[in-house]
């Protein structure tokens, strides 16, 4: 997941910090199936937004919803990695509690995004298909 860079001192520049941040995002994307699935779901949301020609305010809501889910999944991944680093490959009831809570946090962010999606898409879909119902 980490790059081959073995340095442990502070970043020398903004661009170095940015590169490490992008390495972190890319590593999470490569190793976390859930993150890849959420990315694909996000692409579908963007396609839906473009097809339904949502307003710029609605784009803001959709972008916040997408970024919220990705942030939730990243935090969950970080928690899992830190717990595994500390506990190792053995059962620990506290590790279970922490990981389950982190997974719950992802569920909450997903719920918020679903609410945002309903708020943005349902009026457009009703306007489009309402007459047919
Ligand atoms: N060391 C441990 N001790 C106790 N329970 C654990 C431990 N590691 C994982 N678990 C349990 O297994 C579940 C899955 O943990 P794992 O680290 O494999 O995450 P995952 O399969 O990547 O989950 P997610 O879908 O949330 O990313 C945790 O929610 C927890 O209930």
From TrEMBL:
Membrane topology summary: Multi-pass membrane protein
Enzyme Commission code(s) on record: 2.7.1.-
Location of the protein in the cell: Cell membrane
CDD domains: UDPK_IM_like
Pfam families: DAGK_prokar
Domain of life: Bacteria
Chain segments annotated as coiled-coil in the UniProt record: none
Transmembrane spans: 39-56, 62-79, 100-122
Family that this chain belongs to: Belongs to the bacterial diacylglycerol kinase family.
Identification of the protein by name: Diacylglycerol kinase family protein
């Amino acid at each position: 997941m980490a790059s081959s860079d073995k340095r442990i001192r502070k970043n020398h520049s903004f661009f170095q910090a940015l590169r490490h941040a992008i390495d972190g995002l890319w590593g999470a994307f490569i190793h976390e199936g859930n993150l890849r699935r959420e990315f694909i779901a996000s692409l579908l949301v963007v396609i839906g937004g473009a097809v339904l020609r949502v307003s710029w305010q609605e784009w803001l809501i959709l972008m916040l919803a997408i970024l919220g889910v990705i942030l939730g999944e990243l935090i969950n991944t970080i928690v899992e990695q830190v717990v595994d680093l500390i506990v190792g490959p053995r059962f620990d009831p506290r590790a279970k509690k922490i990981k389950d809570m982190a997974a719950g946090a992802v569920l909450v962010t997903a719920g918020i995004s679903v609410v945002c999606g309903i708020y943005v898409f349902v009026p457009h879909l009703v306007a489009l298909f309402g007459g047919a119902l």
